[in-house]
Amino acid sequence: ALARPVSFQTLKPGANNIVLIDRSASMSTLDVDGRSRLDEAKRRAIELVESMPRDARATVIAFDDSAEPIQPFTADVALLRSRI
């Protein structure tokens, strides 16, 4: 939590995308804007999914001390948004 994980990359989705969501306890930390890190991660994941090219696919995996597949590969953006 002290390291404040940050990504400064502009992500561009490809044909196959893997969305990893960190759901560890540190992600519940509130940042200066009052949102949790988990909320920000979800917002960015949805942004990525919504910018995928047509016919692109994504899978959603949540992790903490272990990984859990949340959504297998699909091109259904609405389904991906809801699973995120």
Structure description:
The structure is a single chain. Helix content is 25%, strand content 26%. It has helices spanning 37-50, 77-83, and strands spanning 16-22, 57-63, 67-74. The protein has a three-stranded mixed sheet. The chain has two helices and three strands; from the N terminus they run βαββα. The mean pLDDT is 89. The protein is α+β, with helices and mostly antiparallel strands and 84 residues long.
Q: What tags apply to this protein structure?
A:
alpha+beta; 84 residues; 2 helices
Shape: globular
First and last CA, distance: 22 Å
> What's the β-strand tally?
3
Q: Which H/E pattern describes the elements?
A: EHEEH
Radius of gyration equals 13 Å
Largest sheet: 3 strands, mixed
- The poorly predicted ranges are none
Biggest sheet, spatial arrangement of strands: 1-2-3
Mean pLDDT: 89
**Percentage of β-strand residues:** 25-35%
Category by helix and strand content: alpha+beta
Total of helices: 2
Helix content: 25-40%
Write the layout of secondary structure elements.
Elements: E1 16-22, H1 37-50, E2 57-63, E3 67-74, H2 77-83
Parallel strand pairs: 1-2
Antiparallel strand pairs: 2-3
